[in-house]
């Protein structure tokens, strides 16, 4: 009987405040979508780091005829200097850190350059001799690249030693900023959602102040009076949370998996597993947040 009465009060409150309930649903949906997006972006960044860092190489660029610097004072690296770098890579000092390496001469570098910039007019002005001969080194542990940099940078004929992870870090830093920005917007929207839920509950309570007064006269407890209002807030927020979770699943399925993963097959992307991991967290979190906001709002109202 008490349960039926509570459900009746919940239905009455939702009907009386349809516009406010819709507002709560929309704000909750938008804010939690931002939260979920930020979470998925961070998962994607971590996955891409694990994927690309293992593939990141250390490039040992040999001097060309146009290179400057003390190591390139003699012009283009000669055969002895190239062999000296190879000997250093095979030495007992560096060999334990190296998984594999290969040498790219002028012609190979030129072919790779033409493939990479096939639609760029700059290829018409580049000749093989302008491109560095390079040792490409894969390390067993990419974080130990400093060992190679320190050992090879000073060798004659070496124009420079570059860890490709430095380029990846710049990309990931930009992605992290985007993720933090999305999270910041989400927090602002969550605050708006909490305030809107609290306002909706207070307005609902005010519109039913006569019923509340009668309940108090007949001895109804505060918990019995508060429960319908809390349930109203939870229901409105729950609808928005479910929509946000569904939106994330659809975005991952149709945009990430069907579009990005197809267009960029050599990159690791998050899948539906990550989306189904984040979505329940959003739904539970949205419901708890709404319950807390409604509880505080109705408790303060009943004390007035």
Notes on the protein architecture:
This protein has helices at 2-16, 18-53, 79-89, 106-116, 145-152, 165-207, 209-217, 222-263, 272-303; strands at residues 58-62, 98-104, 134-139, 158-163. α2 packs antiparallel against α6 (165-207) and α2 runs antiparallel to α9. By secondary structure, the chain is α+β, with helices and mostly antiparallel strands. It is built from 9 helices and 4 strands. Strands 2-3-1-4 form a 4-stranded antiparallel β-sheet. The mean pLDDT is 81. The longest helix is centred in the middle third of the chain and has 43 residues, at 165-207. It starts with a helix and ends with a helix.
Number of helices: 9
* Order of the strands making up the biggest sheet: 2-3-1-4
Largest sheet: 4 strands, antiparallel
Question: Order of SSEs, N→C?
Answer: HHEHEHEHEHHHH
Oligomer: single chain
Radius of gyration: 31 Å
What is the structural class?
alpha+beta
**General form:** rod-shaped
Distance between the termini: 29 Å
Strand tally is 4
Q: Which spans have pLDDT < 50 for at least 5 consecutive residues?
A: none
Helix content: 55-70%
Rounded mean pLDDT score: 81
- The percentage of residues in β strands lies in 5-15%
Give a quick set of tags describing it:
single chain; 304 residues; alpha+beta; four-stranded antiparallel beta sheet; 9 helices; 8% strand
Q: How is the topology of this model organized?
A:
Blueprint: H1 2-16, H2 18-53, E1 58-62, H3 79-89, E2 98-104, H4 106-116, E3 134-139, H5 145-152, E4 158-163, H6 165-207, H7 209-217, H8 222-263, H9 272-303
Antiparallel strand pairs: 1-3, 1-4, 2-3
Helix pairs in contact: 1-8, 2-6, 2-8, 2-9, 6-8, 6-9, 8-9
